[in-house]
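Table S2 (text version). Query chain:
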Amino acid sequence: MPNKQTEPVINISLRKLSLTAPEPQPKEPKTFTVEDAVETIGFGRFHIALFLIMGSTGVAEAMEIMLIAVVSPVIRCEWQLENWQVALVTTMVFFGYMVFSIFFGLLADRYGRWKILFISFLWGAYFSLLTSFSPSYIWFVFLRTMVGCGVSGHSQGLIIKTEFLPTKYRGYMLPLSQVFWLAGSLLIIGLASVVIPTVGWRWLIRIASIPGIILIIAFKFIPESARFNVSTGNTQAALATLEHIARMNRSVMPDGKLVEPVLVSVACLFHSESWGLGISFAYYGAILASAELLERDLVCGSREPSQGAVAVAAGDSAESRSPCHCRPFAASDYRTMIISTVGEIALNPFNILGLNLLGRRLSLSITMGCTALFFLLLNVCTSSAGLIGFLFVLRALVAANFNTIYIYTAEVYPTTMRALGMGTSGSLCRIGAMVAPFISQVLLSASFLGALCLFSSVCVVCAVSAFTLPIETKGRALQVSDASSADSQPPLLTKGTRCSQPFSDV
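Corresponding structure-token output:
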């Protein structure tokens, strides 16, 4: 009996199980991130406008920075300044840059890249115009320091470009931005050769403020970074920006809903970016040393002052009465500066090739090693044409170094702290820029070979340091600091990790 009772039960149970349909699983809605949208939309008309407008920030920044190199001989004569006083002007500009670089970076990560870029240009243009009315040397130093504070926010333009560009285009478009820095440098040197001898250095400063004022108006055509909006939870604004870009590029958006990544805690806030200190030291050292070599006519470090310098000294009674060296630039000096400045773009095609084939680290290591060599070659006794050739190549190398460090820094940091990371890196770089004037404008006159050896040694250390960097950013998507991509992120983005692989220090 027990067997006969159990068989029907078993049959019924099996029949019920076979007739019961499985419950349908709910389909997960499609989602996409800003990175997916940027790659899907691709490169188009929006990015060309972005490249032209944000790239032009380099024109304004180059004019403000290079202004000191062309104005220094004039204010030295007008206010009878000694070497250390001339060097102090440049140092204080970079001191202001150093202090406000971190401050603007913090604000940009909190309130937006676009707002800080706009404020920094307003600030810089205002104090630059005030500088032209400086009644004394002290006022000149103070106002140029305030200009340096404003210029420190210009790096937000590079961040906006980096965050909007598709991955495969970053290695090409970001190095091309060097063209705008070159244009600004050539423009201020060309203007100086015409304006200073005719209406004076004060009008040169006023004219140099015009590009920044024009850009303030042009910024309204560029939106806030979509990556920033998503990182702060404002996905609707990010979606509107991406749809606007898709329409401009005549492209399509990816299917699904724009999602905000889940953020994790960042255990190690900063990479050690002090290796960039040496790159900045070499870059501004090369620029200021070029001007100093021309002003003092020091073609060979071991020889006496040249006949040109003696002739100027004999014909200038004011200089004979003054303990300060006073020799304004001649027309030939401006031409030499223009030729050497053009060198900044000479290696740009090779720099782009190296960044995309060799990667950021190896490319930087090679160019830094070559920079060390050409600093030493400046001590070789040569003709004026030989000096111009050495300066040409040297400026090309230091420009390639600076180009690479800016690209690498913008790529290696996550969106939530990219502006702060760039600000910190820029701040540390300006320490090198603050020291460079005292080497190029003070030590150079006392020990020519000693100054060149110091620049060369720093470049060698930087070359080794760049080669040992643990992270390569070539072809790497911009990190958002989200849990889903923790495996592919550097140690500083992994929850609960320590800086077991810090960047090398220089």
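Notes on Table S2: DSSP finds 23 helices and two strands in the chain. The longest helix spans residues 83-111.
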